[in-house]
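Exercise: predict the fold of this chain.
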Amino acid sequence: MTPRSSDAFVLFGATGDLAYKKIFPALQALFRRGGLNMPIVGMARANWSLDKLRARVRDSLEHGGGIDPDAFSRLCAQLRYVCGDYSDPGTYERLRQALDGAARPLHYLAIPPSLFTTVVRGLAQAGCARDARVIVEKPFGRDLASAQALNQTLHEVFPETAVFRIDHYLGKEAVRNLVYFRFANAFLEPVWNRNYVASVQITMAESFGVQGRGAFYEEVGAIRDVVQNHLLQVMALLAMDAPAGRDPEAMRAEKLRLFRAIRPLQPGQLVRGQFHGYRGEAGVAPDSQVETFVALCLHIDTWRWAGVPFYIRAGKRLPVTATEVMVNLKSPPLAIFDEAGPAPPNYFRFRLDPQVVIAAGTRVKRPGEEMHGKSVELVAHQVLAQGDLPYERLLGDAFRGDASLFTGDDSVEAAWRVFEPILDRAAPPAPYEPGTWGPPAADAVLANEQRWHDPKAGDDKPRVVR
């Protein structure tokens, strides 16, 4: 049975940064394409007026891509505002009145996780959770125990089918393109296994630092910020088997099976780093042991991937800003051409950010009498990273009840089990200079004389194969 669409949107934390930077632009985009026509209720503890909230929305759109006059007008016409203490039952009574009879609201908790229990129970007591859905922002806990406690809190009021854990990375066009490329092409499946793949590298590099968010970063670090969620999701999409059908639960079931097959990390299997200057950031402890860089190796204990290392690397103040996947294939079993040194292996390269590139590395013969070759790259797909905003796509899916791009409770807990053995138990972070590829010790994560593939600033530019 097709889920019924939500008929109202409630945004807790409407005066916060997430609403300003991401949610208001996504709402305008949904109004522009005709996907919304319902009450939009902003909730906050700030004693604002509706006019002040409308001004905040206007300012958000002016800084976030521009105002569409018609869509903005329709958004403002549907906008409501309710302020009050989240622990006050009267706040939720005013919310119920603002919903004006809506039967299936969608509640977005863009608030600190410490407030989740209070808000969820307040919604239930006021009757605002009946037949409703709820969106929860990451982080989904900070370890396995807190993730389980968060799930328990949500399930006291909402069934799992009504809980949407949002990870904006899954809404990116490049990530969706990766899934399509894998399962829409027959030529890939025969080589997508341990018989042909030597290793997989996933790198998320950021040339910038913590950008004034030192206090926040002190609470998370690179592992909790991007590896345990964003990059593990990318790994799952690379390695999972094809879902058995189009149902959203089929995709989630395959990802869960993959997560459960990942071998838990041990403290000696990763290297952490911290860039020089991080401890001088506002909000950062002078003796901070938080990592701004991490390199690690994961193994998947399945028939398809047994023995294939999956290397993950993420860090701030690196030479470029880019997210890239390199799938290195095994070399031919016998060298039959007289060339100087071993030839580089074939590969598949997926640039996920800042542009979308799907390419294959191969060998071709050089002109002349000798059977010598050169490496070339065949670009299968290359576009600017455009299309729907990730939050536009994900909010639209949540309104419709489509959970394909959202994370289930079992998957959240399975992902935390992979990292639980190393959380707060790994060796202290090694220092590295800004503008480098992290501490030299990161090379020790690699096996068999492999080298890290370093994304380059020009790797997303058009290439001509001659």
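Check your answer against the key: Residues 214-239 form the longest helix (26 residues).
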